[in-house]
Specification:
The protein has helices at 64-82, 88-121, 142-165, 207-228, 235-242, 247-265, 276-280, and strands at 9-17, 20-27, 41-46, 50-54, 59-61, 125-129, 168-172, 196-198, 204-206. A five-stranded mixed β-sheet has the order 5-4-3-6-7. Strands 1-2 form a two-stranded antiparallel sheet. It has a two-stranded antiparallel sheet with strand order 8-9. The chain has seven helices and nine strands. It has one domain. The chain is flat, with a radius of gyration of 23 Å. The longest helix is centred in the middle third of the chain and has 34 residues, at 88-121. Helix 1 runs antiparallel to helix 2 (88-121), helix 1 packs across helix 3 and helix 2 crosses helix 3 (142-165). Residues 181, 183-184, 186, 199, 201, 203 line the site of zinc ion.
Length: 282
């Protein structure tokens, strides 16, 4: 605690977890760091089989604890249901189940954080599908719900590190990402079991690799769109430019205006992780 001054501590919260009580300190610190541009962009496609497949065709496997977690959760659930309702033993079993959940969520968080940091540091732009975490509670497939929660945390860390290191993160519409050909755009219908994308144009890729390329392309095209709208600005903005104002200041002002107008025009794009600083660096 000697590390932070009392002015920096904004809020203290007491939290109860299955393994005890915690005091959470909310501290205000400047976290932005500058990184050299990497020259790389990447699209990520999440799946159940792999944690994700990227647009370079690389796969990030699911961590081993995902499979172990499933087994442990099932066992702990079974133990609870065997105990008599209202008994002390049931209470203990419920607490044990809570601890299993807690351990899994900590492992998931650690994994998501490490991976996200690595992906953000090695790319200037990271694109992924804007998947809403729906039906998580009603989801009966344990493996899937564990994965969904893991993906949610991963995305959260991607956006957080994106802001910290001045990188762009883009969540794209999930439409047609697996069906369209990443090379020519033709829609090639395939069922979930079809693992390879084969197109008339000669493009043949792993299904998830093809999807990841589509995700990256979709992200790059939206970023391109915000760039071109600078040219469509009102004449007065151009006049200011011609009058010899500092271009850097002007560019900054334009960008923040742009981001503002983008939000007005399409409120559904609120998931955009584009920060102005990240934008200038491109
Ligand atoms: Zn094609």
């Amino acid at each position: 605690m000697a590390f932070y001054s009392t002015e920096q501590i904004k809020r203290v919260r007491l939290v109860r977890r299955a393994d005890g009580y915690y005091a959470q300190f909310c501290v205000s610190v400047e976290v932005r760091e500058t990184l050299e541009p990497s020259g790389n962009t990447v699209g990520l496609d999440v799946g159940l089989k792999e944690f994700y497949t990227d647009s370079n065709g690389e796969c990030e496997p699911n961590p081993r604890f995902y499979r172990n977690a499933e087994k442990k959760l099932k066992r702990a659930h079974r133990r609870v249901s065997k105990k008599q309702k209202g008994s002390a033993n049931r209470k203990k079993a419920v607490n044990r189940l809570g601890r299993v959940h807690l351990k899994i969520s900590r492992q998931r968080e650690e994994h998501a954080k490490r991976l996200a940091r690595c992906v953000i540091r090695s790319n200037d732009l990271v694109a992924y599908e804007d998947l809403r975490i729906r039906n998580l509670v009603r989801n009966h497939c344990l493996a899937k719900s564990i994965h969904d929660a893991g993906w949610y945390q991963f995305r959260k860390w991607l956006e957080q590190f994106g802001e910290k290191f001045g990188r762009i993160t883009v969540a794209v519409e999930p439409a047609y990402t697996s069906q369209a050909c990443s090379s020519c755009g033709t829609v090639v219908k395939k069922s979930l079991s079809t693992r390879t994308h084969v197109c008339q144009c000669g493009c043949e890729l792993d299904r998830d690799h093809n999807a990841a390329v589509n995700i990256l392309n979709a992200a790059l095209s939206t970023v391109g769109h915000t760039g071109t709208s600078v040219r469509l600005r009102s004449p007065s903005a151009v006049e200011v430019n011609a009058s010899g104002d500092l271009t850097a200041t002007l560019a900054g002002a334009n960008l923040s205006e742009q981001v503002g107008s983008l939000k007005e025009e399409s409120p559904r794009r609120d998931s955009w992780g584009v920060s102005t600083i990240a934008f200038v660096s491109i």
